[in-house]
Amino acid sequence: MTRIARWLSASALALLAMIVLLPQPASAAGSTPCGPQCVAINRDAVCWEKEWCAVQLVVKGTPAGSGAVLRYRTADGTAVAPGDYVAVPSAEISLPAGGSTHLRVFVAGDAARERDEAFAVEFLDGDGRVLATSTVTVRDPAAY
Q: So which domain of life are we looking at (predicted)?
């Protein structure tokens, strides 16, 4: 009986390790689902201080019905709102049928000369869970 319990414990541990350590499928990394008939692929962006910056979404396929709406928000990284960018606590973007669309975030500027910083644009499902993240790199023109 002890051998069986040890074998079951080892098997459960091996299964857990496989689930945790296996790489995520491509659909989980870098694409945001927008319905059963389409996929919105999020892209990273590089922006300069003191300008509006576009974060692009490329839509492949056709959203269900008249289109899809995707929720998003920003999250601090090494760039911190409000000094480095204007935070977006919650917003929505409409996804067109095919083609691409973009959302705009404002990158603030300061007097400090600094290296590249980054913040995130998180795309959310209806329950507020993060589906995908685009990284926005903020560059200081004075540093280049």
A: Bacteria
The burial of 108, by beta-carbon neighbours within 10 Å (0-12 exposed, 13-18 middle, 19 or more buried), is given as middle
Residues linked to residue 104 through DSSP beta bridges, in sequence order: 54
| Average pLDDT rounded to a whole number, residues 19-24 | 33
C-alpha span between 140 and 66 (Å, rounded): 40
| DSSP annotation of 51 | E
pLDDT greater at residue 102 or residue 90 = 90
pTM over 0.85: no
d(CA 63, CA 110): 40
What the chain holds in terms of domains, given with CATH numbers, is 26-143 (2.60.40.2030)
Q: Please report, as a single letter, which amino acid is at residue 14.
A: A
What is the number of other CB atoms lying within 10 angstroms of the CB of residue 79? 22
104 φ, ψ (degrees, to nearest 5)? -115, 135
Q: CA dihedral in degrees (72, 59, 104, 44; nearest 10)?
A: 80
